[in-house]
Amino acid sequence: xxxxxxxxxxxxxxxxxxxxxxxxxxxxxxxxxxxxxxxxxxxxxxxxxxxxxxxxxxxxxxxxxxxxxxxxxxxxxxxxxxxxxxxxxxxxxxxxxxxxxxxxxxxxxxxxxxxxxxxxxxxxxxxxxxxxxxxxxxxxxxxxxxxxxxxxxxxxxxxxxxxxxxxxxxxxxxxxxxxxxxxxxxxxxxxxxxxxxxxxxxxxxxxxxxxxxxxxxxxxxxxxxxxxxxxxxxxxxxxxxxxxxxxxxxxxxxxxxxxxxxxxxxxxxxxxxxxxxxxxxxxxxxxxxxxxxxxxxxxxxxxxxxxxxxxxxxxxxxxxxxxxxxxxxxxxxxxxxxxxxxxxxxxxxxxxxxxxxxxxxxxxxxxxxxxxxxxxxxxxxxxxxxxxxxxxxxxxxxxxxxxxxxxxxxxxxxxxxxxxxxxxxxxxxxxxxxxxxxxxxxxxxxxxxxxxxxxxxxxxxxxxxxxxxxxxxxxxxxxxxxxxxxxxxxxxxxxxxxxxxxxxxxxxxxxxxxxxxxxxxxxxxxxxxxxxxxxxxxxxxx
Length: 542
Prior knowledge:
Blueprint: H1 4-10, E1 13-17, H2 21-32, E2 37-41, H3 44-53, E3 58-62, H4 70-78, E4 88-92, H5 97-106, E5 110-113, H6 118-155, H7 160-183, E6 187-191, E7 197-200, H8 202-208, H9 230-244, E8 249-256, E9 262-273, E10 279-288, H10 290-343, H11 349-373, E11 383-386, H12 387-401, E12 406-412, E13 417-420, H13 422-439, E14 445-456, H14 458-462, E15 470-479, H15 486-489, H16 509-519, E16 525-529, E17 533-537
Parallel strand pairs: 1-2, 1-3, 3-4, 4-5, 12-14
Antiparallel strand pairs: 6-7, 6-10, 8-9, 9-10, 11-13, 14-15, 15-17, 16-17
Helix pairs in contact: 3-4, 6-7, 10-11, 12-13, 13-16
């Protein structure tokens, strides 16, 4: 059978304004392949000339172009009576909220983000063309009814036959509008300017398994779609009042369904004006973007984890190999240099040269440490930091995520400042406490975090060459969980080592903690007894 909607598409013409040939060709192929006629323009002035010559049904407008950007082109179109009603969909390579707001203020109705997805392009084009026709039909309907009422008042008659003809025509129009209204997969509603819901399409009703009688005639923000959140109800109420004043409103909402499935909706409210410029009603629209959002979030997370894992693996392997081989060489150089210094005549040129060699090996050792820094996730930004405040903040965050069967005891006795990267210190606390929480998930227990001041004397410093004598902070994280065997304990700081199941951890947490502590001039050690618990603190310092 012939599809009447496809025939209707054949005469719809879309102007594509795009200065990138590949994007222009791709969009043209998508649209012409589905029955649309396409007219190209490669810059803003050519687009304005093309519209002046013949008004298209829709414009796909690139944001970034030489001479005149897409926002300026759109503003000029909206100031012209012939072109102000053309729906403009912006094309952008950026998914920035401020850019989108700028586009909507300029008069655009939607955004398509590069790289293009054919289904999304066609869905947005089809929807806004249908909405354009719906709006034009509704406006014509309002205008026709107004003219008819005026004619009745002037002539004081309407013949019965004419009345039947008009009613039949109106029924036909209503049927056509209803078909268009209900065929889209968007959620669409018609509202009075005061927010009273006049109409809701089948898609929006089926979304919550309700009928029109359940929602028609009610204030929009009091309908079942928003009852899961008082804050969202208030936001919708404010949005309706703003739209009634002529504003275009758009934001994202969250809707949990009765079966527990989460849904994210791209929601908007658009005012529709009559010829006098008065807002006659509002159109609410919603796009279910759940799958796309979840897919994007999952993709970003996987890409981030993959990049980090690859970086850690590659650079860590390189740095470790260099450090191992180079330190072996340095050990020999430093050892033989020290032996030679014992035998060199005091004050001789040879002794001076040997001192220079020894100093150079020290600089080479520092260079190895700098190479190892590249295997860490972020660059350090050291500044005076109160570790106690960071610990307290981290424990507040953790309390909400840990089971109620786990008690948190904190003993923060230090308010001292240290030169540290606050973000990395926060990461250390969160990683250690999260691991402790995992160890007590099944049976519960006690998570204890202790922070005290510690004076490191010279004898202690000799046992830890990376640490200097003087005031330090001692952070201890202990749990009463299942503990670890000696075999597991010996590997907990190894990169990618994990005792968790597949997909439950990267094995990088404690290796990152170890690297951060070392980079701050500290030391770290773990004690654990199976079925008794684990304690992580500085190694033999106190």
